[in-house]
């Protein structure tokens, strides 16, 4: 019986660790998406400015 309790406690802790890792991965993906969107906006603005200066 005691072994079962320890096994369940260990499994519970593993589940929490995996959930935390998944949350960190989602946060990183959101941060990368934000950076890429900012770069795209800057890139589009830069292209537009370059096109205007060439004309």
Question: What is the compact description of this entry?
Answer:
The protein is an all-alpha fold and 55 residues long. It has one helix at residues 2-54.
Q: Per DSSP, what share of the residues sits in E-state strands of 2 or more residues?
A: under 5%
Give the averaged pLDDT, no decimals: 82
Outline the biggest β-sheet. Answer: none
Helix content: over 70%
Number of beta strands: 0
**What general form does the structure show?**
rod-shaped
Number of H/I helices: 1
Sequence stretches where pLDDT stays below 50 over 5 or more residues:
47-52
Spell the H/E element sequence.
H
Radius of gyration: 24 Å
Structural class: mainly alpha
Terminal-residue CA separation:
81 Å
What's the layout of helices and strands?
Elements: H1 2-54
Folded structure, characterized:
- This protein has 55 residues and is an all-alpha fold.
- It contains one helix and no strands.
- It has one helix at 2-54.
- The longest helix is centred in the middle third of the chain and has 53 residues, at 2-54.
- The radius of gyration is 24 Å and the shape is rod-shaped.
- The chain starts with a helix and ends with a helix.
- The relative contact order is 0.06.
- The model is unreliable at 47-52 (pLDDT under 50).
Name some characteristics of this structure.
single chain, 55 residues, mainly alpha, rod-shaped
